[in-house]
Amino acid sequence: MAEIVAAGAAVHAPQLLSRPPHEDAAKLDASTDGLRAFGQVLDETRPDAIVLIGLDHLETFWLEAVPAFTIVLSPEVTAHYTTRTRTAPVHTDLATHLLRGAIARDFDLTYSQDALLGHAFLTPLEFIVGDRDIPIVPILVNTYLPPIPSPRRAYALGKALAASLADRDEKVAVIASGGMSHFPGTARYEAPNFAFDEWVVGELARGRYDKLLDLSPVNLDEVGESELMTWFVALGMIGDVPGRLLTYQELSHHGHGVVQFLPELPADPAVLARAVPDFGGHSFAQTDYKYYRFPEPSSLELNRLLHRIIVEADYRSAFVRDRASVVAAAPLRPEERTALMESESFDALTAVGAHPLLALSARQVTALERDRQAAAA
Known about the structure:
By secondary structure, the protein is α/β, with parallel strands linked by helices. It is built from 16 helices and 11 strands.
């Protein structure tokens, strides 16, 4: 039977890659130090493969198809963010085995042999895997395009994947790539729920997961925790193992956490002694998605333009050089053209139907491209 020898969950914020000058460099360093610390566990445990569970920020599938769970089967896979790219080998035999095993256990898992991954994979490849020659099994979880799966369903997928390892003999590491509380691209961008993060850390330290798994996707949307869905898949694979926090940083817009589950570490007495009310004292009120709503089909062309800015370097360059021409050539509604031409705010774009992640990511990569063009000039 395959052995899961290492398991962790980790932040993948793009700022760890781009290092924008307005961010707190010491906190970024603390986050990458935590990622590298978990990377050292790979040297100690020497896994044959890494099951890398990440998510799609509308970079891989976006709106042409929205699978709940996807496994990548190509011989190798490329992850990118703006101008940074990294290619990693895929353990295709193990990936195919997990696909067959999940389907045999009633999970209709999507698969891809041609997926371009985003920063949810690039960040752990850069700072955890590093130069280690370990093949990966990439798994994507839909966390931002409602309707999304429930935490219980993600946990059940993890259990199905673990059961599928029963007749394998590899040593396996599991890495869940996902952030804690943050609201990228929304009006709440600079108001994450750090108190909820503190409660999550306490539950992890005790290996106590029922209340987390009982949350609904709408609950997660309300507190900015939808990326914990990748963590729930990992928990399903390893069981109710306590997690030890390696680092947690409060940035103005994001809780950066890195947690190690396996090999097990002694509990942090300070965390166990801290009395934190359930859900960090938060009282849930939403009855539907508020921050990451279902993208209405009428906004497809606006979202398509933003998606092209993010993933197509030439299109992004043209947009920065001559925004008016690019906007004029796109089949947009008048209010969408106005939002693109008259404001740098992602709030203006989301108000006319842009998905918040696309609005924020497009603004971020456009700023980087503008700086690149200015330096070249």
